[in-house]
């Protein structure tokens, strides 16, 4: 069974979606290296339709990307959960019609499946008990409003697996279920 890993950029107060608080370059070169290591361990990317369309609209055209993110995203198997998307237009991509299809995906052979962005999908995955690991890049920012990682009524019992602090002030916290 493959691990489903939720990777999110998050504020100290738990917000993952609110305005313009996040800049991917804010983490510095050490954080970028941590991202590269994560990409090397995952062979699947899971998103909802909106995040998928945002990624598809940007990354395939990035031909001079020293970070390696464009190369990874253009090659990795992408699975998008959507009831409306018909033609993904970015290979390799498979359209999944719901969370039950994600259950089936976890039962296939392969490495970790990473879900990033996609707050509505992330909430569905948490509620369905499908998340094995949380990789949280905690930014030293408090926005005091916005959508949070964990939906109301979804208590979690987690254990800290590792933590890494970066010179930028960002901390990577990796949690697994107990």
Helix and strand topology:
Layout: E1 4-11, E2 15-17, H1 28-41, E3 42-48, H2 49-58, H3 69-75, E4 77-81, E5 93-96, H4 99-106, E6 112-116, H5 119-127, E7 133-139, E8 147-148, E9 158-165, E10 171-177
Parallel strand pairs: 1-6, 1-7, 3-4, 3-6, 4-5
Antiparallel strand pairs: 2-8, 7-10, 9-10
Pfam families: RibD_C
GO molecular function: 5-amino-6-(5-phosphoribosylamino)uracil reductase activity
GO biological process, one term: riboflavin biosynthetic process
Describe the overall structure.
The protein is an alpha/beta fold and 178 residues long. The protein has one domain (4-177): Dihydrofolate Reductase, subunit A (3-Layer(aba) Sandwich). The protein contains five helices and ten strands. The chain has helices at residues 28-41, 49-58, 69-75, 99-106, 119-127; strands at 4-11, 15-17, 42-48, 77-81, 93-96, 112-116, 133-139, 147-148, 158-165, 171-177. Strands 5-4-3-6-1-7-10-9 form an eight-stranded mixed β-sheet. A two-stranded antiparallel sheet has the order 2-8. A hairpin with a 5-residue loop joins strand 9 (158-165) and strand 10 (171-177). The chain is globular and about 40 Å long. The model has no long low-confidence stretch (mean pLDDT 92).
């Amino acid at each position: 069974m493959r691990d489903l890993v939720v990777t999110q950029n998050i504020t100290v107060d738990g917000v993952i979606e609110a305005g313009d608080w996040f800049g991917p370059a804010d983490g510095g070169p050490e954080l970028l290296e941590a991202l590269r290591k994560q990409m090397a361990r995952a062979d699947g990317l899971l998103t909802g339709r909106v995040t998928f369309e945002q990624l598809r609209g940007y990354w395939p055209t990035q031909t001079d990307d020293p970070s390696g993110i464009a190369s990874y995203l253009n090659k990795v198997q992408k699975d998008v959960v959507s009831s409306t998307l018909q033609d993904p237009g970015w290979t390799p991509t498979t359209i999944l019609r719901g969370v039950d299809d994600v259950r089936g995906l976890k039962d296939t052979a392969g490495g970790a499946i990473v879900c990033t962005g996609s707050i509505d999908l992330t909430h569905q995955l948490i509620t369905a008990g499908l998340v094995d690991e949380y990789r949280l890049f905690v930014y030293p920012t408090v926005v005091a409003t916005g959508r949070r990682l964990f939906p109301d009524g979804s208590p979690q019992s987690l254990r800290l697996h590792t933590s890494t602090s970066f010179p930028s002030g960002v901390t990577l916290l990796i949690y697994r279920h107990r």
